[in-house]
Specification:
Elements lengths: L6 H32 L14 H7 L1 H24 L8 H15 L1 H11 L5 H27 L11 H11 L1 H13 L3 H16 L3 H12 L2
């Protein structure tokens, strides 16, 4: 059955509103990544005969490593945030609040990245790594809160949304907080290991998901 004539303008309005939310979120993510890059410092020239630019650059390896982990983590957020808004068709005030909480946690990533890079080779490295992993856990929780609210009883979906895709995404996202909780506990014992596992998790989650893509293609074919 064809939708009533007035549904098309309403649908266009919904898409415009969700598009504004996604565009604003993309802007925040872009700024966060830019701030990460600003932490990469050029060693100042020195007249010391023993000065070695190569050694000075190598000594900054904690900064480079923390940058890589945080970059891939933000990349994962961007990929999954876009994935969410391929199925979320409407917004309301609560969704805006939950999305704002997620963005607030994202804006703190450059701070904790600098924190862990600064203390990685110091006695306080475990505390710094726990703060770092703790923010990732908060990010993951905020992401799940946003998704669970939107998907509860399909409140922000429409007839075009593939419920199999919704169920698959819900199952996949449920593992995020558990993984970062394990990383947080691991950070209490080994800061370096927790960062390595964080990096591996971020790279893994950034890889294309064939199951999600297949479900999205099937959903598109039925429209």
């Amino acid at each position: 059955m064809n939708p009533p004539p007035h549904s098309a303008p309403h649908h266009e309005h919904d898409e415009k509103e969700t598009g504004r939310v996604e565009a604003f979120s993309d802007g925040v993510l872009a700024i966060a990544i830019t701030l990460l890059a600003l932490e990469l410092k050029v060693p100042p020239p020195s007249g010391d005969p023993g000065f070695s630019l190569a050694r000075e650059l190598l000594d900054q390896w904690p900064t480079y490593f923390a940058f890589l982990v945080s970059f891939f983590f933000i990349l994962v957020i961007w990929i999954n945030h876009h994935r969410l808004f391929t199925v979320i068709r409407r917004i309301d005030n609560n969704l805006l609040i939950f999305n704002g909480l997620l963005l607030m946690s994202i804006t703190l990533i450059p701070f904790v990245t600098d924190l862990v890079a600064t203390y990685l080779q110091r006695p306080e490295q475990n505390i710094a790594a726990m703060v770092y992993a703790g923010l990732f856990l908060v990010n993951s929780f905020c992401f799940n809160l946003l998704w669970r609210y939107a998907s509860y009883k399909n409140r922000l979906f429409d007839h075009r949304t593939d419920l199999k895709l919704v169920a698959f995404i819900s199952r996949q996202y449920a593992f995020g907080p558990l993984i970062y909780l394990v990383i947080l506990i691991l950070a209490a014992f080994s800061a370096i290991t927790s960062l390595v596992v964080s990096f591996a998790a971020a790279v893994f989650f950034a890889l294309p998901n064939r199951s999600v893509q297949q479900l999205k293609d099937e959903s598109a074919d039925t429209l």
